[in-house]
Amino acid sequence: MICAKSEGIVMVRRKTAAWLLAFCLPAAFVVTAAGENMEPPVLVMFEKVGMSGRQVSFDAPVADIDVRYPFHSASVKSGRWELCTRNNFKGACLDLGVGDEVVSLKKELGFFSRVRSVRPIEDAPSGAGPIEARPAQPETVSAPQVAKGAVEDAPARAAVPDAPAAPVASAEGLLRGHQAYFFKTPMLDGAMIDAEDEDAARAFCAAAGFEKIEFKSDVVSNGRRVVGDLLCAGAP
């Protein structure tokens, strides 16, 4: 039933008015709620931290982002979105809702990681979520790759579970030299590096601009043995 006001009706009995009010208000609420739900999902990704620099807007899934620069911050304008560090919505993923803003994606996903695929949550298969646990505070630079969208007008850092981020300073002083760099709990594509994965550790150093691993030690995190300290050295 549709509630309408007629110019010909000047007075309505109180009972009738109360009945109309009780019936029409819920109907109006349903129509309003439905209108809100119809708003398409929109995600805006930025070239620089703090939602600044060039930007790209997304309103549909993109399995292989193809933009010339990496994104360093993001803002969800409507809907709910999944941002992942690998193509086809794999790797470490962030689940963001309307109004959420990520000032530094590298702080959330890792210094060497970058967002490579995005999609509205409703487009994800049932039960899908981050394929790898979302790191609390990852670490270190990005090897640029990027998203299909309309460009307008984002570099940042990161942090890690149980450890500070990127290049680390300690009681012994700043652990960085002219041709060497120390990393605590390094992360690659948003995930900690397995202690026995030498290739991944070397890839981390290479992405940071160094030629080799000078020193490496392991730690146990959540029952898993991972690289805890990594010293990369050698000019690129």
TrEMBL record:
Residues 1-33 form the signal peptide. Residues 44-121 form the Beta/gamma crystallin 'Greek key' domain. The keyword Magnesium does not apply. Keywords: Repeat, Signal. It holds the Pfam family Crystall. SUPFAM superfamilies: gamma-Crystallin-like. The keyword Repeat applies. InterPro entries: Beta/gamma_crystallin, G_crystallin-like. Belongs to the beta/gamma-crystallin family. This is Beta/gamma crystallin 'Greek key' domain-containing protein. It comes from Hyphococcus luteus.
